[in-house]
Amino acid sequence: MKYFPILTRSLIIIFTIFFLFGCYATTHRGPATLKPGQFSGNIGYLYLKGANAAADDKPGKLVTVDIRAGLLPFVDIGLMRTFDYSDYGDFEYDGMDTYWIDTKFQLSNIKNKNYLPQLALGYGFGDLIADDDKENKLFVNSLYLILGIPTKFVTPYYSFRYEHTSDEIKWVPSWAWKEDFNTLQKAHIIGFEVNAIDYVKPVVEFGRFYVDDFSDGTNVITAGVNFYLDIPKLLLTKKTTIIE
């Protein structure tokens, strides 16, 4: 019986990781959207551990890969794939491989001027690839708000996410005001995207996902690199070079 508390704690941690892994995603970027002809990719690493987890509890580990493309001067779209490399010990579980798709709308400072606040609103959907149960399929519908201030060297930003699990994709986020706030998953995330050079920008994020009690949530840290491709800018540079 002395092992019962340890087993119970382990099951709680595994359940928490299971739930949050299946629901985790961010854009890994600030509020600025890509313009038409601009593309971006990201490779990142995610570390996740319960806020009240013991020191010897194993963390969750994910590798994330995503691509984004500009649709309109203030709208872009993204696709994310996550790969689970967590150690679940003796638990028989295939991992939290997921995919996401989302659209982000930039609401202010469309020209991306330095030191002027930017605000963006995004909406997307996620799903567990490892879940083969077609009859009980669950989707995560995610609504998020990002506020940031671009500078020459770095763009700090804050993101609040609001997520709802359903057996179908919710094209209209009516759940955001119909469901009980305390039963939906939420996240506060702070990120920094370093504007090192035009086409390569390191990024780091840290925050917490939780449902009802913020203190009982799960801490998340991500680190990665964003790659950018601006086709109109490249074509203009090439044309200028030829003329000279």
What does this structure look like?
The chain has helices at residues 4-21, 175-178, 231-243; strands at residues 38-50, 60-72, 75-84, 98-106, 118-128, 139-148, 154-166, 185-194, 200-210, 218-230. β9 and β10 form a beta hairpin. By secondary structure, it is mainly beta. It has a 10-stranded antiparallel β-barrel with strand order 1-2-3-4-5-6-7-8-9-10.
Rg from Cα = 19 Å
Give the helices and strands as they follow along the chain: HEEEEEEEHEEEH
- Weakly predicted, low-confidence segments: 1-23
What is the percentage of strand-forming residues? over 45%
What is the typical, i.e. mean, pLDDT? 80
Determine the structural class based on helices, strands and strand pairing.
Answer: mainly beta
Q: Major sheet, described briefly? A: 10 strands, antiparallel, barrel
Strand neighbour order, sheet with most strands: 1-2-3-4-5-6-7-8-9-10
Tally of individual helices: 3
Number of strands: 10
What fraction, in percent, of the residue positions are helical? 10-25%
N-end to C-end Cα span: 82 Å
Gross morphology: globular
